[in-house]
Design brief:
It is built from four helices and no strands.
Length: 101
């Protein structure tokens, strides 16, 4: 994955694009980036600014973190389930060396 551009650089490109003085294609050419990159950054800025509907950057970050947390918790639950099953099996077989009547 390519290294992300600095936030200041993205902010400058978006500010110029939002002025609508040049086309996205011209802005992309001037800054040496792709036109789709400019379009994506502008869309993100409009969503974050409330000018367009969608999931904001902060919400997307929070969702990503919450998904990671849920995955970790699911893994912990699975470990506990296996441990409980092992313990119940050990209790059913009784202590080693004992004879059941």
């Amino acid at each position: 994955m390519p290294k992300p551009f600095p936030k200041e650089f993205r902010d400058d490109v978006v500010a110029i694009a939002l002025r609508r003085e040049s086309s996205f294609a011209q802005i992309a050419k001037d800054f040496g980036i792709s036109e789709s990159c400019v379009q994506r950054w502008v869309k993100i800025a409009e969503v974050d600014g409330g000018r367009r509907a969608g999931v904001t950057s902060s919400e997307a970050t929070e969702n990503r973190e919450l998904r990671k947390r849920v995955k970790l918790l699911e893994q912990e639950v699975e470990v506990l389930r296996r441990a409980a099953a092992d313990l119940s099996q050990a209790n059913l077989s009784g202590p080693k060396g004992s004879t059941r009547s």
